[in-house]
Amino acid sequence: MPVEPVPCVPGGGGDPSPSCCAPSIASTPLCLDDGTTILLVLRSACACDGAAPTPPEIVGWIAPATGTFTEGQAPAGAGPCGLAECASVSLLRLCDQIPDGDCVPFLRHLVHDCEGTVTASTDTALDGTTPYTPAGTVVDCDDCPCPPTTKVVPLCDYLGPGPTPVVPFLRHLVYDCTSGAVLEQTDTLTDGSTPYTPVGEIADCDECRPTPMCPQLLGLSGPELWSMPEGTESLAITVACGPVTITDCVGNATQVNECGAGFNWSAPPGDCTPGRLCTPFTVDVPEGAAVYLNLLTPCDMGDVS
Questions:
Q1: Which of 71, 171, 214, 274 is the most exposed place for a label (fewest CB within 10 A)?
Q2: Which domains does the chain have, with CATH numbers?
């Protein structure tokens, strides 16, 4: 019977991927003129992602008595065994648990007579042709102890309260495949080899970390020309004594003469980023005039007076 293809494991380790490219192996008994049984080995080409398998082709034959594989067609005179033609071959996928604890999978070819009795057997590697001799204890592969599993997790070391400064790094984990308990942990830079020791807050690199914002209150008396700093999210102006001239980022100038008049502007925040009012934005306070400014800026900008 065909051997079920085993999903390919990615080169860096981890869980098997959905696709596979393991050819199917089957063998069928034939008998020589002297009654000796041989196993004709058939192989179907790689069938991935649910594609229909191709017709099998003969790759060679095995002499069960010696385990020797011979490439090519069966010997002349080889044919079905017995008139009933009811002999059959089954394949078992077993594991050789060697003394150091590792398990080596292999195939056991069993020849059955018409009553189902095993009349011959031989072992091969998973390719179905290379002879294999178990060196340890033959067990069901499900009974093999699973080895420690590795995983590499990309993380970020946030050195401040906001999204920057930040150092991306890799955390290498070795964990027990049964319990999931972490057995070993090491950190490196993104090159995978340079050791790194985090010093800030560790979190996912795509985590939303809002920029800390700080309010500032300024009082201006003329003569003074004030320019709004880049990165300001909101601004409120109260005219204590006019006149003052407010010029927005598109060049519209408005003179305010009324004392006590108030104005405010606010930019909506972006995707985990603060809003930004457009600049240049100026307030011209002449001699004898005064205004109060209340603005919200990133805390790392410091005093903007």
A1: 71
A2: 24-143 (no CATH), 149-203 (no CATH), 213-301 (2.60.120.10)
